[in-house]
Description:
Elements: E1 15-16, E2 19-20, H1 29-41, H2 45-55, E3 62-63, H3 64-67, H4 75-87, E4 91-96, E5 99-104, H5 106-116, H6 120-125
Antiparallel strand pairs: 1-2, 3-5, 4-5
Helix pairs in contact: 2-4
Amino acid sequence: MSKQELVVVGQDDRSTGCCPVLLATPLDEEQATDLAKVFKALGDPVRLRLLSLIASRAGGEVCVCELTPAFDLSQPTISHHLKLLRQAGLIDCERRGTWVYYWALPDTLDRLSTFLTTTHETEATA
């Protein structure tokens, strides 16, 4: 068992939510591993575009039948990229009949946003 001090979220002025702001505190090993998986999934232009298409969709979800024509790729390749986005926790899906519908997971997107946010207040306390 580690002898590191645990910080209760919300009781430390430097923490915001589950992830520290980039300039406020260094990442621990577990946080770095979790975030690296998400960034790795976003490191491909096709997956980045897929996430953008899904997240920007009015109504919050999109059918895979509407995603595939936006790319010059085969359906199995699109499905592979969607699977990697799901494994990274960026999107989720549900089968309805023969089609699968996808939506973005705001908690993960918020976590990334929190991590990458730099504010003048944070810079002053760092």
